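Notes from hallway chat w/ T.B., transcribed later so I don't forget. T.B. wanted the structure written out for a chain they're using in a teaching module, and asked if we could keep both sequence and structure tokens in one place. Agreed to drop them here.
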Amino acid sequence: MITTLILLLLIIVIGTYFQTATGFGLGIIVTGLATAFGLAELNFIAAVVSLVTLVNCLFVLPKSLYNIDWKISIFAGLAIIPGVILGVQLLSYLSDSATSILQALLGLMIIISGVSSISKVSQNQEKPSSHISTFSIAGFASGFTGGLFGMAGPPLVFHFYRQPFSIVSIRNLLLLLFACSSASRSLFLWSQDQITNEILLLSALAVPLVSITSIIAVKYPIPLKPQSMKKVVFLLLMVLGGYLLIKSFMIFS
């Protein structure tokens, strides 16, 4: 029990460092590693990730509420909420009836995230997508993956990096919308009496570690060039996602 707790807290620290330094990664790393190593059930760790992500975002956001397109953030943020609710409901159903399917879906999502992180996308040179609905669609998809897996990153990360936004603007938008997704998920779980004492305990133990790690990540960023960082993230996600897929297929067979 103590060993599992220490390992979970260590994974949360690693995920927090990546999240603060790059704008994403906490949900993918924590959910993926905890599930792959069998440290916790997906619905449990996803709930913890939501609370920890919320703390991480709120800690960093006060210094990041600038260079943000508020129209885009409002449209994407409002669409996140129904996506979260749908994702949580599906997780509850699959957790009871199809654990292997859920694990395969998680592995596939992590691989898609890895491919997205390394792919070269052609950005619009002059202005963002003219149809604001595309940001709502990305927000809904992000809410859905956040509700289902506790990782809201892939849809928003992919869509925002296709826009002519600065890296700072993308990072700030992601932090704001991840806070929205995490808050929505946590509030919905609380309304359904699904926030257990175990979830609260692990989250409470993780909060000071998240705060300290966030400070360290801001002061001492990862000493790698952006392209090298992309390769590291890509390899990590491909190995993690591949392992989960293989593991789920072995259960099927």
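Follow-up for T.B.: Residues 24 and 153 are 6 Å apart (CA to CA). Might be a good example for the class.
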